[in-house]
Structures are given as structure tokens and as C-alpha cells.
Write a structure and sequence with these properties.
about 210 residues; 5 helices; alpha+beta; 4-stranded antiparallel β-sheet; 6-stranded mixed β-sheet; globular
Length: about 210
């Protein structure tokens, strides 16, 4: 899969810190998380364009549809909307050139001038879009098995007082405390976070959980 940036990028950067406390993990491993994240784009409402002013529900109506995006300097892009970032309004487009698995392009929200829907997507396209970001490891599992693994891990995390939710178009990604994500098939290698301390701790916990399941 090829990932391509599209459109100009000029983010605002801020830093924040937040302390997260979970009473215990497995009853005997206390946790005190200090989260530091950079790269958060701050939008000035006065300078937002029409696309940025839309709500997440509005952006959701474009997902799984073929669109034409007109950006600054009259640049045009066509592709299937994989998702829209709720913070920056960045559009993630997927295209499927002949004899290729697919490629992804990003059009920054502040560069978007117009979005035109060209075609509605069907269930086959929805599944194809879901596969484009699925790790190769997850393709060895059936949909039912991935769902079972996700629910088992989510239940275990919740039983250990770790805040966890589902995100993404199909709810396949687990979000831990809003600072770490776990993609299918939900192993330590599928964890990602900007905070290395949290990443290492959760990967260790996840490894222990998987060993218990065997």
C-alpha cells in the first residue's frame, strides 16, 4: 500500500500533559500514566473554511463515497473517502490503480475548497476500504474471529479499570484512554502511541493477556 501526502500542510502545534490513574492492573500492578503529546493541530475558528466548519456527523456522510476534492490553487483529487480526521478535517482518500492494492492520499482540511460526491459506495467497497488499512496479520483471521478477539480484550481491559472504547468506521480499532490504539488482530505489535512509556506498558500487559488465553 502506498501512502501519499496531498495538498499543503501548515499545522499549528501545541503540547499538553495529562495524568491518568488506574487503580490497578490484574489487582497488583498500579499504574500512573503521564501523557505528553505533540503535533495537535489548533484551528482558529475565524480562519476556518466551509469544510472545516462542518460537524463530524456531516463529514461522516462522505465516508465510503467516491468524491472529487478541489483544493487550493485549483488542485483536484478523486478517490474514495476512507475517513475524515475530526480535529484537522483532513480527508483521507483511497484509490485503486490497476494491478495495485491501493494507495492513500491526505488532503489537509484547511486546503479543501469543495467536495463533490461522484458515486455512492456499496457493501463490497466498504469491505475493500476496510481491508486497505488492515494489517496483513489480521487477514489470516475471519471477521468473526477478529470480533471475538476484540471483545475479549476490551472486556479484560475494562475489568482492570482501564478506559477503552472503539473507534473507526467499523469500530475495529480499540482506543485506550484516548492515547493508544490497538488495531486488528489485537496483539502487542498492533499497539501504537506517541507516548513510549504507555506503549511499552500496554504491550507488556497485552502479552500477558494473550498468554492467559492460550
Amino acid at each position: 500500500m502506498e501512502v501519499k501526502p496531498a495538498g499543503p500542510f501548515c499545522p499549528g502545534i501545541s503540547e499538553w500533559e495529562q495524568s491518568l490513574d488506574a487503580s490497578s492492573i490484574g489487582g497488583d500492578i498500579p499504574i500512573s500514566w503521564c501523557v505528553a503529546a505533540a503535533g495537535v493541530q489548533v484551528l482558529d475558528v475565524r480562519n476556518m473554511n466551509d469544510w472545516q466548519r462542518k460537524s463530524p456527523l456531516d463529514w461522516q456522510t462522505y465516508v465510503n463515497k467516491l468524491v472529487k476534492v478541489v483544493a487550493v490553487e485549483k488542485h483536484e483529487y478523486e478517490g474514495w473517502v476512507l475517513t475524515v480526521d475530526p480535529v484537522s478535517a483532513t480527508i483521507v482518500l483511497a484509490t485503486f490503480p490497476e494491478n495495485e492494492k491501493g494507495s492513500i492520499s491526505f488532503i489537509m482540511g484547511h486546503a479543501v475548497q469543495e467536495v463533490e460526491v461522484l458515486q455512492e459506495g456499496d457493501s463490497d467497497m466498504e469491505q475493500r476500504l476496510a481491508r486497505i488499512l488492515a494489517p496483513e496479520e489480521s487477514q489470516a483471521y475471519s471477521v468473526e474471529e477478529l470480533e471475538r478477539r476484540k471483545n475479549a480484550l476490551k472486556t479484560w481491559l475494562e475489568s482492570n479499570h482501564i478506559p477503552v472504547g472503539e473507534q473507526g468506521e467499523l469500530g475495529r480499532t480499540l482506543s485506550v484512554a484516548g492515547v493508544l490504539s490497538i488495531e486488528p488482530p489485537y496483539g502487542p505489535e498492533q499497539c501504537s502511541s506517541t507516548n513510549e512509556i504507555i506503549l511499552a506498558r500496554v504491550q507488556g500487559l497485552l502479552q500477558g493477556f494473550l498468554q492467559q488465553q492460550r
